[in-house]
Structure formats: C-alpha cells, structure tokens
What we know:
Elements lengths: L19 H10 L11 H11 L4 E2 L2 E2 L6 H21 L3 E4 L11 E6 L5 E6 L2 E6 L2 E6 L4 E4 H19 L14 H5 L1
Helix pairs in contact: 1-2
Amino acid sequence: MPDTRSTQPKPTNSFEGPSLEDLQAKAKDLGFPNPEIFTVKKQLIAVIGNIKGRVVVNKKKAAPLVNHAISDAKRWSGKALIMKKKLDGQPKVHVFLSLTGKEKPGAVKEITGSDGKRKIITSGAIWPVIQNGHCTLVPKGVPVMVPQQVQEALGQSQLKTSVAGNEFLVDRDEQHEGISMQEALG
C-alpha cells in the first residue's frame, strides 16, 4: 500500500510567517512611530500595507482611498456661488414675513472679518431659503428686499403651509358630505 501521507497537503499553521517583533521592526523601518502598541499580527500587516500605499483586505488589493468629501464640497460650493450670482442679478422685491407667537423681529447682518472671511450675524426670527446650496436668510417681522426667485420660493412655502393647515381647521367643509364641520358637530 502506497504512503499517502506525503501527498496530502500540510495543515497551515497560523503562527508561521514573520513574528510580531519582526513586523514591528518593519513598521518602524517604514516610518511608523510606535508599532509596539500593536499586539496582533493582522493589525501590523494592515498598517504596513497602508504605509506602502495599498490596503490589504481579505488578501485582495483594494482600490486606493479617494477623499470624495473634498470634491463634493468644491462641487457644492460651486453650485452655491453660481446660484448667488444668479440671485444677485435678479430684480429685488419687497417681502414681509409676519411674526408668530412670541417671536421677535429678525435682523441679518453680514460682515467681513480681517481675515477676509464672510460672517453672518442674526438675531430674532429668521426664515432660511436654500436654493442649490445657497442660503438666503430672510428676517421676519420687518420689510426686506429679496431677489424675485427667493420671494417666489417664500410664496410657495407659505401657500403649502396654509393649505396643509386648512385640513385641520374645525370650520372646514367636509367634501364628501357637503356640510361644514360645525354643522356636523352641532
């Protein structure tokens, strides 16, 4: 009978390969400041892979990491600037938003700091109108001039709010019966 033990694959030992100390030394040689904080070989292998510019996940080479947040922020701010320029070129119209409850009249002041950064200071009640990433702050309780497109957006918002609120009034007309709610209750 032939000996089959020599043809069978050897079981792999997870302790084979470089030791923890060898991996720590390699990480230190690659510039990692304190590799001794790692006590698991897999962690050190991942750190060494990251230092070399590749990420090893399940023995597959992963795609290089790309910071999409920066490109998204640039694209978003580009849209906001385009919208700001568009609104600045539009005719201005008067708008008055009434106060509700205990709100105080709003005020919006824009200042430019010594570092050149634009800062907006608000007080009282304001209503933000955001269009393509550009935010226009409209103070409530005082008449202000805003671009026409902002005024249209405010009008649509106010209309939707009033329509939604009418559904819950006690004196609304019941469409399916043709009588008012007060008559139905009274």
